[in-house]
Amino acid sequence: MLVLTRKSGEQILIGDDIVITVLDSRGDGVRIGIDAPRGVKIQRHEVLRAVEEANVAASAAALPDAEDRIKALLAGRALPPESDKPAS
Question: Are 2 and 17 within 8 A, CB to CB?
Fold first, then answer.
């Protein structure tokens, strides 16, 4: 990991087309601006992590119902209508 000290207004260059600019520093927070091509994904780690955790939880909750529906199909039984499912 490269660790740098920058002052407000100073920049960091990544490759040929990504520029990070320190905009402001207050207390324990730093505001930065990122200039990158549209094709470069820029995401906050904590948001990405929360989405991943929510997806895992949703798929785990949906799995038993999906498994029951597949078993019913394989057994040749009629499936209950979608409206009978509890609201989530």
Answer: no
